């Protein structure tokens, strides 16, 4: 009589090292979703020969955890994931090999060995950069001023459980037009605290429209420049991997 | 300017559509070449798979041609897919043309637009693409500024229903054919395009390997049947031959399979282990039109797997063919690959496995340390009698023995594929599927000692196809198909001892009737396709977009004035003497042999696989100057170190670090 099968052979080799990796989502690959990235990453890790650790069982998965990914359609200079390995590696060599194995536009920026503490806890806020296309920069400035003058600015987004209305204003720590690009489009910067539900740039734009009546005729180009621990005095966010670098030491 | 990127105009639209990643290209191993890479006479191909990106991007045919063409210094090839209605509407609003995903060039700028038709249900998507590209829908309205529209793929074996819309069609293997066409188009461009579009088409037609519908006239008898199909231009042969690549090892494509970012229907790399099939299943168009069998050698397969995995990083390899377990060295291939990739979390699969070719050693090899979730078999016919009619030589005992072995070795779920509406079929033949499924469960419970085993019966309507012994057969009507399927469902549900263990999936009969119309139609059906498209018909292979009522209304309107109707094309049995719309397309099969095989089917007489028995004179080998190419070669796969290229540099010890 047949019994329940269990995988033959020894259990998978244990993880001996954890890396924290920062990557960028640029150009046309800003249209990739988190799932698209995950698929591309797993294949790139195999191509590059990175000694990934796998979970046990009949359907082993590489041990990768993703942190606070930017929405589909949003470019980013600061996306993060953690990766467990079965052999100790040189982070700089992994950075180079993995960057080479990923498609152009998904670029590995930084690789460090993980120190103590959870990465997710350090991702307190994001620094966003928006190019507001097709609108008069003065109109954008006026809308920003009106938005900042309110105490609540609500938006409604559809979640798995249905539509939900929430405030965006409180999460917005700073918001200002910092300049105009060569095409004459206003460049909007904002630092937004990570909350639940997360307040995304498109939520803020929807709320902005509700509060001020301002709507960009073309969706703005949105880029996350950084995410990490909040700095004092509205001074943006710090590098979340700095702690790891200090703990483990550079050049490993 | 010709060849310029339309991406700046497209990009803002992508913010507003679902799954924008499918339109941006940039896949690993994709290629973008300069527009003038081969000088003024550069031959530029846009290759289209006329369905959604997620279906089209893993298509092996397109991937092979893309690579073969891009390897040529004087040619370039880019890919384009059907855009979903949300993007189509925005493209129309903003004047953005049909584009390639590689360099986002306008499809209308290319010299040739190659269309790969795996199924007839992509025809309306072709019209959307032509219209968005600014190419006149009718070949007769095009001039020198428009690409040549070339149809290929299995559906092109009857190109008549789309004769109005395509400039030419190529049947059979594409690898050598696209290179020959590229040579011809390149030469004509270098000569300064003498005689314009007409002269180019004439040169193509005169090769005998390219079908140009405009150079053939069709006349009809008063009762609607075809009287004659005859060439109307000098030097154009009466029949057009299919192309056959003989040595698969000489064509190890794709070498660098595309790795899409978007999720696709096949999340794996495929290696074609042989082409063609001589099992002789009478319903199977693919098996008939791809004869003879040509195997890739075990060493050739090993090299393609090795090179492909290194180029892609895929975690699963499918060993592709029409009946993969029939490769003469399949045991050595699977064992060799399983050994090589042991411990690398690389999966192996055999997508098409016959019940009789399946053996438990092979299946164990494939799932050495993986899940044993489900196995799929295709008995196709429910009764012993109907399986003789279709020449699917599997006995009930074979099937029971096979599933017993599978359940005994740890599999919990078996899927069984069947067809409904096969020639001579009665309710009784189909109802026997219920008995078979019950026996499968009973056997499974017995050998496994468990109650949690399952069997899924999956069934769809049979559509008779050109170039098969069933090309003369009457298709079962949609209502009759549905009624028969309802009876089967009732029979499965009736027995409470098994009902909960048997799943039942079926496709209703309506799409099959449209597919039947398009499969065995002639030039008069072109108007129906166009009318459906003008009425908004798109993505007919998708149940949420398909509208049977729209097709029937258009057919009524367009076919009635021509004296025919849908039933005439689908549920009508043909006589031996009738001129079939595709008779002038030479698949290599002898029409007399096909007719004899049809009579054998009605007689319930089976015919063996000619790989292992004497020739039955189907006509392919002598007429095409080909022969069966199979092993065994006696070679084995040597062990291989399958580390990724960068691993040695990365690991600390090797890089000179110490702990």
The radius of gyration computed from the alpha-carbon positions of chain A, rounded to a whole number of angstroms, is: 21 Å
Shape category of chain B? globular
Beta-strand segment tally of chain A: 10
CATH superfamily of the domain at 7-241 in chain B: Cobalamin-binding domain
Q: Runs of chain A with pLDDT <50, length 5+?
A: none
Number of separate helices of chain A: 6
Briefly, what CATH class of the domain at 7-241 in chain B?
A: Alpha Beta
- The total beta strand count of chain B reads 18
Order of helices and strands of chain A: EHEEHEHEHEEEEHEH
Beta-strand portion of chain B reads 5-15%
* Percentage of residues in helical conformation of chain A: 10-25%
How much is the radius of gyration of chain B in Å? 25 Å
CATH class of the largest domain in chain A: Alpha Beta
- The 3D shape of chain A can be described as elongated
Largest sheet: number of strands, sense, barrel closure of chain B: 5 strands, parallel
- What percent of residues of chain A are in strands? 25-35%
Ends apart, CA distance between termini of chain B: 60 Å
CATH topology call of the domain at 7-241 in chain B: Rossmann fold
The averaged pLDDT of chain B comes out at: 93
Structural class of chain B: alpha/beta
